[in-house]
Amino acid sequence: MPALDEQRRIADFLDDRVARIEQIIAARQQQVELAELGRLANLDAVVRGSAPTQRISRVVALGAVGVVVNPSTYFEDEGVPFVHGYNVRDGYLDLTEVKHMSQTSSNALSRSQLRAGDVLVVRAGFPGRAAVVPPELAGGNCASVLLLRPGDDLQPEWLAAFFNSPLGKQDVDSVQYGAAQGVINLSDVMSFELPLPPLDDQRKALAAYERTDNAWRQGQACAERQISVLQEYKQSLITAAVTGEFDVTSAAPIPE
């Protein structure tokens, strides 16, 4: 064990360094939060616009609910993707931990079978999160989500953007129920009023939004990587100072 004065030097050194590192981490976390607010404001401006609205039930060709009763009975080690609510994020599908079912089972559950361009909306837990089904998931199936199949006058990405926007979240909040976790019903979602500009205007607005959104997301990702590196550095610094791997007497204070 180090002598008492050495212990004090180590403690003073760590207090100084850790406090400064945590200040930087807090600043980066604020950057992440501000970027998210910027993303949402941008999305809200795009979706609201000044277009007339249409009830969702009038602009989708299909509204269905994924497998709800005992979806685990369909699990297979291999087969087609069986997408769950936890795979659906704001605007994309996270398939790092996707389940599978047999193609035969998916074909039998035809109403919830996926097609490219379908929009999946989380039903419970984080209700309202939405993402578009990519071509590689066609033929798969889904569980515990709402499946909306846009009609000819509706871009799938526009519908997903609506649900992920503050306007869509406001509608979801108004109809969700459940104390332990929020839940939404298909009938309520089908009654939502969706701002619906002409198809070409939807495409143009989405293209402009995606360019800006990519910049916001890149900024968020950069700040999050810095936070991770700083947290690792803080822990390694503490370990090195306490174990004597780093000589604190030779270290100068971090400049103000």
TrEMBL record:
Keywords: DNA-binding, Restriction system. InterPro entries: Restrct_endonuc_typeI_TRD_sf, Type-I_RS_S_subunit. GO terms for biological process: DNA restriction-modification system. The keyword DNA-binding applies. Coiled coil: none annotated. It comes from the Bacteria. GO terms for molecular function: DNA binding. This is Type I restriction modification DNA specificity domain-containing protein. It comes from Enemella dayhoffiae.
